[in-house]
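It is worth pausing here to work through a concrete case rather than discussing structure prediction in the abstract. The textbook approach is simple: state the sequence, then state the predicted structure, then interpret. We follow exactly that order.
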Amino acid sequence: MKSGMLLRGGRILDPSQKLDEAGDVLLLGGKVESLGGTINVGARDDIEIVDCAGLVVAPGFIDVHCHLREPGREDVETIVTGACAAAAGGFTAVCAMPNTDPVTDNQAAVGFIIRQAARAQAARVYPIGAISLGQRGEALAEFGEMVGAGAVAVSDDGKPVASAHLMRTALEYARTFGIPVADHCEEPTLANGGAMNEGIVSARLGLKGVPSEAEEIMAIRDILLARRTGGHIHLCHMSTRGSVELIQWGKERGISVTAEVCPHHLSLTEDAVEGYNTNAKMNPPLRTAADVEALQKAVRDGTIDVIATDHAPHHYDEKEREFADAPNGIVGLETALAVNITWLVARDIIDVATLVDKMSCAPARIFHLPGGNLRRGSVADVTIFDPDAEWTVDPARFRSKGRNTPYAGQRLRGRVHRTIVDGRAIYSANG
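Step two, the predicted structure:
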């Protein structure tokens, strides 16, 4: 077994150091040993040499929002299959949301996820604990015990925290542990029964819509509570231009607010629902072209901090129901890089460095995770990708158990070449 790896002749791209240059990167003992220029390792046969000519060598991608379904729905995803799908998508680490069965709302549940992830020998998995016991929105879970067991944030994602008092208390409590509170912004009485964005398309299709205000009302509530408490609010999967304006308002006032957006909200509009396509049904729903444009600009100007997948696998039969009855969500780990390059980089909305920052550096910084940079001595978590390679999405080839994607059959640009965790290749496009 090789003890090290020399990544030779790639484009080293580390926005955390404002580094963008051609050269080598040497990984030894699970750490970045050196980088830049030509690195000579002599005739050592314990170091694997990887030709990275024409490829980008970046800090490993980190997804702060995914659903791995275990425990409870191992038929649609497991921690092992999810971690392997993440690796195939270039992610060296993912954060698992707590809406499992049972809910991840205690230290034992957190410990279970960490043990299962260790067995996977793929991408790192960081548990996110629930805000409330059972995600019922009534009483806080024990944050301290979950953080002590390895949780990196708290969230009731999948369910909004309807009680402003509970959210205020959560922000105060989480502040003492230095963790973010990640909220699914949805005003339940406005969103109740909605299946897609409220507008002309929903009216034509005869589907009950979810107005943009359902998201925006909760977003501003959370921002105001973060101002009151000094806690860190992280707004999940933003989807509207109004939310962008509210986040800007909060940041301008020094409030501790960060936000994420998903590749599908940066690339697709409500028109994808035409034909009652359940693979375009998600929560929050796909919005209008004006919303997509506002979100893209927010990624470019820094209002949106992170691009996260909201990977949500479902069984084929579940998605084959009537549109209103089908579950929300799509798989995203294995298409995220290519969707982002195709819709953002290739269209000159952002450059590759900004994309790496949104998918690696910023997630690590905001959630206080290892990685997110290639500094000497940092963990050897690296993503190597070809930003120009084109491929056609074939869900049958996914490592995830989920096949529910709106991108099936589409020609995308940007492909992962190799994913390295702790100095060990956990995925290679060449097998």
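Step three, interpretation. The longest strand covers residues 4-14. The chain has a mean pLDDT of 97.
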